[in-house]
Specification:
two-stranded parallel ribbon; mainly alpha
Length: 197
């Protein structure tokens, strides 16, 4: 839902009088941690050539989520970050209690037209997902069970946590677009002045 959240954030931010140029002044604390988390998310692409990544794919996936949470904690004062934090925490909880795998509804995948994903999960090609079979009832509520089917151009199955994450992204982009360059520069000057004391 990151693509959808980004697009909606940009549209709503502009409608509410924000400026695209303000996004060039975005400052993220711990951005290196976030980049590392994103790189870990890409390891399934190279897992066939590197058996290590294939063997520990579920743990690598969980680690990327934890790193993302660390980065979010470093930026909680920014608009939307609390929604981001709640969403990622919900996803992390259900993953941690299910062998570091995200439970996903196969019936929801079929409804979304993603039967190929079911085959990939059953064959072990997508090791960070598992079926809802045998999952505790409370965990099913946090699993990916909400289908977004075609004709939507990006069909998928999402969780409650994903919804919070998308909301957080929308609010974050809107908040950053509404910030004026004067406020950003004033904050930078203020920090710089404190650093010289």
């Amino acid at each position: 839902m990151l693509i959808e959240g980004t697009i909606l954030g940009l549209i709503l931010g502009k409608v509410r009088g924000g400026k695209f140029s303000s996004l060039g002044d975005v400052q993220i604390n711990g951005w290196i941690v976030l980049i590392l988390a994103l790189l870990l998310q890409l390891t399934p692409i190279i897992s066939e050539d590197f058996p290590f990544f294939a063997k520990y794919q579920s743990y690598i996936y969980a680690t990327s989520i934890i790193l993302t949470m660390i980065c979010i904690c470093m930026n909680l004062k920014k608009k939307g970050m609390w929604a981001f934090f709640i969403g990622i925490l919900l996803n992390l909880i259900v993953i941690a209690f299910n062998g570091f795998q995200m439970p996903i509804s196969f019936s929801a995948l079929k409804a979304a037209g993603l039967e190929s994903m079911i085959n990939a999960i059953q064959s072990g090609d997508m090791m960070h997902y598992r079926a809802l079979t045998g999952v505790a009832q409370w965990a099913k509520l946090l699993a990916k069970f909400v289908p977004i089917p075609k004709p939507y151009p990006l069909p998928k199955v999402i969780s409650i946590g994903d919804i919070f994450i998308t909301l957080g992204l929308i609010l974050f982009i809107m908040g950053e677009m509404k910030k004026s360059k004067f406020n950003v520069r004033h904050r930078m000057i203020k920090h710089g002045y404190k650093g010289r004391i």
